């Protein structure tokens, strides 16, 4: 498993503000945004800001921050989309399905009557993605109130 960090990976560019994302949450250690090729409606990614390729490279503090944000955002996704279930996923290495070499956690709502769409396959309509982000942001706001 190659742990050499590529500073030009797509999430590094998002973290530097060089390319846009549908951000739903940010704090000092983490950011969360909608997956651009969602496997289901509400598919959200949590990305630690630390420059780490995978879980093994992430510091303990980074891992703690990541799981804290994952729980917080997953609660909001659950409230916003009311799925039948919700998977949390994290892939290490291409052989495990990792396509972006910056550690991240997937929050994937699961609907009993739908099969998951392909992993990193079809781009979502940008307006729909924005609307989904707004639903998660509203739920986060309610939870903080
Ligand atoms: P993984 O395969 O676990 O590395 O997951 C990477 C995820 O990032 C996939 O689900 C992709 O759909 C998603 N993705 C790739 N590029 C972007 C982007 N620019 N904005 C948001 N999500 C992205």
UniProtKB/TrEMBL annotation:
Every HIT domain range: 10-117
Motif Histidine triad motif location, chain numbering: 102-106
Source species: Cupriavidus yeoncheonensis
Protein name (Swiss-Prot/TrEMBL): Protein hit
Superkingdom field: Bacteria
Active-site residues (renumbered): 104 (tele-amp-histidine intermediate)
Coiled coil: none
Gene Ontology biological process terms, A to Z: nucleotide metabolic process
PANTHER family xref list: ADENOSINE 5'-MONOPHOSPHORAMIDASE HNT1 (PTHR46648:SF1), HIT FAMILY PROTEIN 1 (PTHR46648)
GO molecular function: catalytic activity
């Amino acid at each position: 498993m190659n742990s050499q960090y590529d500073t030009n990976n797509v999430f590094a560019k998002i973290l530097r503000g060089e390319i846009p994302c549908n951000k739903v949450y940010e704090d000092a250690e983490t950011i969360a945004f909608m997956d651009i090729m969602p496997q289901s409606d509400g598919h959200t990614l949590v990305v630690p800001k630390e420059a780490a390729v995978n879980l093994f490279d992430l510091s303990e503090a980074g891992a703690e921050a990541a799981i804290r944000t994952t729980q917080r955002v997953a609660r909001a996704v659950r409230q916003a989309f009311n799925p039948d279930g919700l998977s949390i996923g994290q892939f290490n290495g291409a052989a495990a399905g990792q396509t972006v070499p910056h550690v991240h956690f997937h929050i994937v709502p699961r609907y009993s009557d739908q099969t998951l769409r392909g992993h990193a396959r079809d781009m979502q309509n940008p307006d729909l993605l924005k609307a989904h982000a707004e639903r998660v942001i509203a739920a986060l706001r309610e939870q903080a109130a």
